[in-house]
Amino acid sequence: MNETIFYFFYNFAHQNNVLDQIIVFSAETLPYFVLMLAGLFLLFHHDAFKAESVLEVVLAKKKEFFKVLFSAFFGYVASYLLKILIATPRPFDALNGVQALWYEGGYSFPSSHAAFFSALAFSIFFMHKKAGLVFMVLALVIGLARIAAGVHFPVDILGGLALGALIAYLVKKV
Fold first, then answer.
1. What is the DSSP letter of 48?
2. What is the rounded distance in angstroms from the CA atom of residue 7 to the CA atom of residue 168?
3. What is the per-residue pLDDT across 98-143, written as a single tens digit (0 to 9) for each?
4. Which of 22, 107, 115, 146 could, after both became Cys, cross-link 83 (CB 3.0–4.6 A)?
């Protein structure tokens, strides 16, 4: 089933240059925009730029910033450590005929991108439901694009999303 779902998304790649560029943008560039958008949301949501001192508002909300950034960072680190322990090959290494849209080194499971952006999305969700849902959708788009690009299996993305959600929940409880 993992391979069937993989090929469903992977078959969007290598069809035409425009679609390949959309996949690469969604998998490689969109994450930077999502991270920037999360920071801007956290600032603007609290009217930081209307205050006399932006620094005072940021310091007052440092716990919220810390939870979001720590969750995302810890999601990335945890996924990196799990990759070393589990050592799952990437689709282009495991399946004949799969050519990724770019080379990605290292192991595949769980996806560090999915873990990072899932932890970011869920930590925002625990504080701001509607915005958190938007970030969850963006995390899913990034993950699906990485499948289409041929650098991850669906189970890698699912594992990363679950890991990120778990870490955000644990950070919330601590």
1. G
2. 30
3. 899 888 888 999 999 999 999 999 999 999 999 999 999 999 999 9
4. 107
